[in-house]
Structure formats: C-alpha cells, structure tokens
Amino acid sequence: MKILIFFLSFLISAGQLYSQNRAEIIRNKLLSGDKSSVIVASHRGDWRNFPENSLEAIDNAIAMGVDIVELDVHMTKDSVLILMHDPKLDRTTTGKGNISESTMDYISTLKLKNGCNIRTIHNVPTLEEALLHAKGKIMLNLDKADRYFDMVYELMQKTGTTKQIIMKGNDTAEQVKAKFGDYLKDVIYMPIVNLDKPNAEEQIEMFISDMKPVAFELLYKHDSNPLPLKLKNSLDGRTLIWYNTLWDTMAGGHDDDMSLKNPDAGYGYLINNIGATIIQTDRPAYLIEYLKSKGLHD
C-alpha cells in the first residue's frame, strides 16, 4: 500500500511539473529549431467550442494539446488591456460601442457571445487574467499588442510570463529592433513575409542576417508560386516555417477546409512539400488528431 501511495504521489507531482513547465518545453523547441514534431497554434483559442479570446477557449486549447494560442489585445478607455479581436464590442459581446470609448467597469458587466452569436456565461478577460491563467502551460502569440507593448511587458513581468510570448509582424528588422529593443531577449519575434511580393526572398535573408528569427510566418495565394518549394530547402536548419490554414489564400489553398476533405492534401502538403513545422489553425483538435496519426505531435 505504501508503495502504491508513493507511486501515485510521484505521478501527480510529475504531472504538475510537466504542466508548470510545458510552456518552457515549447519555447525550447522553437529556440532549438526542433523539427521532430509539428507545433500547433490555435487561432483565438478554441473558438468553435468556447467564445473566442476567452479563458475557457484557452483552457480547452491547452487540454487538447495545443502548443501556441493566438490572442488579440485591445485597450479600454481607462487603459486596461483586454482580450478581443474587434475594435468594437458589438460582434463578440452583449455590449455596444468602441472598446477605446468603453470603461472596464462597463465591459465587466458584459457576457461573451459564441460563434453562433449567442450569449454565453463567459466574461471578457483582461490580458493580465489571461497571462496568469496560461502561466507555464502554453505559449501565447499576442496579436495587435505591439501598439502598447510597454504596458504589455509590464504585465508580463508582473505575472512572470515574459518568456511565454510570441510576437509577429510585417515590420523590417530595423523597425522591429527599434520597437521592441531589449524586450527581444525574452520575447520571440517572428517576421511575416508575403511570398507573392517581389522582394520576399531578399527580405527573409535580411532578417536572418540581422536577427536570426526562430521562425517566419509565410503567406502565398497559389501553388504556381515556386518560392514555398524553394524555401523548404534553403531555410532548412536555419529557421522554422509557420503557415496559416485559416483560409485558402494564406497557404496556396491548403487550408482547414481542404484538410477536412483530404488532410494529406491540406496539412500534409504544407508539412511534407513546403516544410511547415508550425501550423496555425481554426480546427486544432482535427489537426492534432491528424498529426498524431503521422507521429508528428507529442
């Protein structure tokens, strides 16, 4: 009996340690350029089952094994950072009006709506609440947060989450270094490059020379563009590649919809043909199930 109790206690402790350190494990995979598995990023949390940008959507993403959750940040009239995609409250909450003209006192009285525009029991979270909620459990990609990143970083320091944050953007390397400065010692920055633009390859090489980013988010509309196939080889061992499957024009048509019909033609093409090692999706459970069937997700 004592041996059984000791063993169960060990398993519980190990599980707690893994949960607490999971974000660090994912961060280290990114920093080391680990390609042994595909990293899954979930768009606005698991919004098909819970309201987008809610704590519950983050929780469900964590529970299913998502590695990165993308969240959107806006600031209220009284300078509180909250999670919300739109600049207005109308679509995703029971309230009305611009976030920038609404106080946190008012927003705290509202309820979030789900993807069917139905009121739920869930509240609008502040960024601080979300950071504390996700601490140690998952990496966070904060969208639209660069507009007030000094405030964001203060919250990261306060909550002990400075090494859990990923930022992305279209700025040049010089602009990124000027905007984020010393924050880059903690925050992972991934450039977004549109491969349909004439200077795309040059832009990638300049970023690698100046900043050595751990990954690039790449975009292209059609498979007639030869660059995605070329970059699979030229970037191998130098940086990771992130593709979005949210809609068809982001990754040559190999999106979630194609993947629902034929996952090998969607997700499989991105991984095997053009070197995706990070995929952002609106269907995280489906993507993870596919990756596990291929031995490509921990």
Structure commentary:
- By secondary structure, the protein is an alpha/beta fold.
- It has helices spanning 2-32, 55-64, 104-107, 127-134, 149-159, 173-180, 200-210, 227-234, 256-261, 264-272, 284-293; strands at residues 39-43, 68-75, 81-83, 139-143, 165-169, 188-194, 215-219, 240-244, 278-281.
- An 8-stranded parallel beta barrel has the order 1-2-4-5-6-7-8-9, surrounded by 5 helices.
- Helix 4 (127-134) runs parallel beside helix 5.
- The longest helix is centred in the N-terminal third of the chain and has 31 residues, at 2-32.
- The chain is globular.
Briefly characterize the structure.
The protein is α/β, with parallel strands linked by helices and 298 residues long. It is built from 11 helices and 9 strands.
SSE topology:
Layout lengths: L1 H31 L6 E5 L11 H10 L3 E8 L5 E3 L20 H4 L19 H8 L4 E5 L5 H11 L5 E5 L3 H8 L7 E7 L5 H11 L4 E5 L7 H8 L5 E5 L11 H6 L2 H9 L5 E4 L2 H10 L5
Parallel strand pairs: 1-2, 1-9, 2-4, 4-5, 5-6, 6-7, 7-8, 8-9
Antiparallel strand pairs: 2-3
